[in-house]
Amino acid sequence: MKYFYYHQGELFCEKMRIKRLAKEVGTPFYLYSAGAVRENYQRINAAFASLETLICYSFKANANLALCSLLAREGAGTDIVSGGELYQARKAGFPPEKIVFAGVGKKEEEIELALRENILMFNVESEGEIELIGAIAQKLSKVARVALRINPDIDPETHKYVTTGKKENKFGLAPPVARKIYQKLKKNRWVKPWGIHLHIGSQIATPDPYLRALQPIETLLKWLEKQEIKVKYLNIGGGFGINYQPGQSSFDLDDLADKITPLISSRKLKLILEPGRYLVAKSGALITRLLYKKRQSSKTFLIVDAGMNDLIRPSLYQSYHEILKLDEPPANSPREKVDVVGPICESGDFFAQERHLPLAKEGEYLSIMDTGAYGYSMSSSYNGRPKPPEILVKESQWWIVRERETYSDLTKGEHIPLELSFTHSRLAGKPLYFTKMEGIGNDFIVIDNRPGFILEPNKLARRLCCRKKGIGADGILLLEKSKKAKFLMRTFNSDGSEAEMCGNGARCAARYAWMEGLTNKKFTFETPSGNILAEVNNHEVRIKMKDPDPVELNLKITLKRCTRKGHFINTGVPHLIIFESPVNDSSLKEIAPQIRYHPRFQPQGTNVDFVQIEKESLRIRTYERGVEAETLGCGTGAVASALISAAIYGISSPVKVKMKGGELTVWFEKIKRGLYQKVYLGGDANVVYRGKIIEGDIDV
Ligand code: LLP
Predict the structure, then answer these.
(1) Does residue 559 share a domain with residue 463?
(2) Nearest Cα to Cα of residue 572 among 625, 650, 512
(3) What is the DSSP letter of 589?
(4) 562 and 665: one domain?
(5) Which of 170, 274, 311 gets mutated to test ligand 1 (max ligand atoms within 8 A of its CB)?
(6) Which one of 233, 289, 318, 584 is at 20 to 30 Å from 361 when CA atoms are compared?
(7) In a domain, 28, yes or no
(8) In angstroms, rounded to a whole number, what is the distance separating the alpha carbons of residues 230 and 228?
(9) Ligand 1 centroid – CA 644 distance (Å)
(10) CB neighbours of 107 closer than 8 A, spacing ≥ 6?
């Protein structure tokens, strides 16, 4: 059946009038026919039905999740080339036991991910790679299954950019090198020879190059048999060509199947195929609108609203795509010689050159055919052009399976470092930029004050931290210039008082500095209570705390109506720890404020933590000095609780500490009972939002 055809004067995709979609969605957009994908899959399946065959769709041809999920549902596996494709393929529903992983430059983390997922096998392309795979497999105690990709040195007679089986290409291994590796693998516990892989190129017109490539493979198979090295799979890759031009014939799959069957069935091998283009190219079209018709010199240009950023194949490979009008031209309608070009600022931005097309008027729609493979997957947003949407049609149903990108997608993930921002140097008339952050529910307003424009930080903290008249936060963190380290962090509580240090504040400041590019992942910064070593791993920040003073255990604190037993430690700021199980609300409301102002801890006062020991963690609630209330979490309090629990109950590092706002981990080393060193605190530090304060409304 034809999936794109003219009917009642218009181009249809399955049972949908494409013009209706164009009007509804706007142009340009990619359009795919579900029926065509399924039919192509079944055609390959039927051709190779006499062999045990796994069709591993080449994911790079078209990574659209909905379209891929159709193939996964048909029973296809997939051929991937990166960790990103592994992630996408799993999301599309391809099971790991049907995934093969090719590519000349696999990275350690990609190999590890694939091993953890238990994919069917790696198609290995170099000696270095096999060693790395072995090392990672051993580390994970997993067995890696591999096929060696053989470079048979044959010419597949296609475009030189998609020729991959000649000896001067970067792909695969020469047969003698492959033999050496297979031989070595005999003794390898962690890497098992599972197959032989070939992929000689793309858009190959006839079976002949495959048959030539299989000659050295047959020799290799005989050699493997002699060596008693057993492989289960022969993977002949993809590359089956399609007929892009009218009159061209498409690849004869039945002929290939017939000719390779003896080689495979006599050895009871399983066959893997990796078709990309053959499955999806003809299922897709790129729909565009004719913006302007322009005559220049002796030429006529049809300027359309799709560009080489949407479909790069004509520019990159001089490839031919048929172009149809959505309105069917009458039989024998006049034609004119045109160049169909896009809006990109490059002369290479064309879809057809000197092509005789039926006359078209400005505003009409055109369909660039056979663009389901290597169309969207090779697109970019070059020239500030949001990528087009993708639409899937199944009979008379249709879905937008990927939305059109927006202008804001064009700047997604970008940051202008404050240092480069034109608003940075002086505040006069310019906004004050801040970043709202939180770590376990301790929230901060982080401001880069290295230029020194904040003159009254205490006042600013009171105002900004106020949840009614300001932004609302437990404190503000100022990054200031430091002679000793990358920067100095100053912490101001919401009452305006300055704290020497705050564990969660320090983690937020560290993440902020790393995000702004002020530091590497691991660095030191200064606080009034000493230098802090920090390590940032995306959201997770771990800091080394100042070596704490020795603990003071079993203090009797006499209060108005009672006496409480507590344990004191300074972990950068003072903390009194009280074990209480379960913790009463009244302890935080009534007991804690009395302790905080108790003469024993004057003049600086103390924070108070109520600690409950659970199975494998501590649960704590903290009354914070300065905030003068319970907070959702407190980093120095978590450290204090962990160390005191170690001193009293012998709890060992690492200690998980749960608070209302989340969980932290504390690591430490014991010198002797009650004295600790190498204390680390780790947990998430998150950006909530960024904003700016207009000078004049709030005094800086
Ligand atoms: N297997 C491997 C290891 C591959 O590298 C490829 C494609 C395939 C299978 C699938 O080949 P296919 O059946 O689709 O020909 N961008 C070019 C095509 C590049 C092909 C890259 N490798 C184009 O638009 O023509």
Answers:
(1) no
(2) 625
(3) I
(4) yes
(5) 274
(6) 318
(7) no
(8) 6
(9) 62
(10) 83
Span 426-442, average pLDDT: 81
CB 349 within 8 A of CB 308: yes
Nearest residue (by CA) to ligand 1, atom 23, is: 374
Task: Kindly state the average pLDDT of the residues 88-98.
Answer: 98
**pLDDT recorded at residue 693:** 82
What 3-state DSSP class applies to 218? helix
Residues 139, 241 within the same domain: yes
**Final residue in a domain of this structure, among 280, 315, 343:** 280
pLDDT of residue 581: 93
Q: Whose Cα sits closest to atom 5 in ligand 1?
A: 199
Residue 633 belongs to what domain range? 552-684
Would strands 655-659 and 662-672 be described as parallel, antiparallel, or unpaired? antiparallel
Distance CA 551, CA 676 (A): 9
87 and 223 share one domain: yes
The pLDDT, as a whole number, for residue 694 is: 72
Banded model confidence at residue 423, pLDDT cuts 50, 70, 90: very low
| Summary mean pLDDT of the chain | 94
**What DSSP string runs through 312-352?**
-HHHHH-----EEESBPPPTT--EEEEEEE-SSSSTT-EEE
Atom of ligand 1 nearest to the CA of 275: 13
How far does residue 383's CA lie from ligand 1's centre (Å)? 26
Q: Ligand 1: distance of its center to the CA of 165 in Å?
A: 12
